[in-house]
Amino acid sequence: MLKKRELQDCQALYELMVHPDVFPFVRHKAYSYEEFLFITKQTIEAEERGELISRTILDEWGNPIGTINLFDIEDGAGFLGTWLGKPYHGKGYNQLAKDAFFNELFYERSINTIFMRIRKVNVRSTKAAEKLPYVTLANETRKRLWEEINQGEDIYNLYEISKDNYTLYAMRQQKLDDEQQLKEA
To answer: Where does the record place the N-acetyltransferase domain (predicted)?
Structure first.
């Protein structure tokens, strides 16, 4: 489902990224394939320096379909950035990728808080974030950070995922899964 970023995936990812429904919401935009290669190389190097964590999202056949990233890592916290190619929207890949990524961040890395900044005009992402039981709107509770991310033209909502909230969610899900398996047995 996830793998470390590799230059060999750039052609497929670039073609998915430039779709008009995807491109506006990509953090590191590339306006040519060569620029995308360069940005990917920089991303791989930044991960080696501990500045970010970046993964390629794969479909069930191992094809690259998007990326999921934790940017601006500082004091055990960072900002989530994710995008999927248009043909993969609405098919459950985003949630599968987030679960795998969050498990890595919270239980294999020293990350305790994941922030999401979502443009207020991005209704689709806002609805998706607000459906997640472990996500908290943090505009008021993290007011200074919310003001910091809203100094430009775009206006964002700030969401927070704490390790504790995600762990409670994961434990509840495991219990529900176990109960369902017992019913089916």
So the answer is: 5-132
Measured CA to CA, the distance from residue 26 to residue 141 in angstroms comes to 26
pLDDT in tens, 104-149: 999 999 999 999 999 898 887 898 888 889 999 999 999 999 999 9
Sheet holding 135-137: strands in order across? 2-4, 53-58, 64-74, 77-84, 113-119, 156-162, 135-137
**Residue in 25, 54, 32, 31 with CA at minimum distance from that of residue 42:** 54
Q: Which residues pair with 3 in a beta bridge?
A: 56
Q: What is the pTM of this model?
A: 0.88
93, 138 contact by CB (below 8 A) = no
Report the C-alpha gap between 135 and 113 in whole angstroms.
11
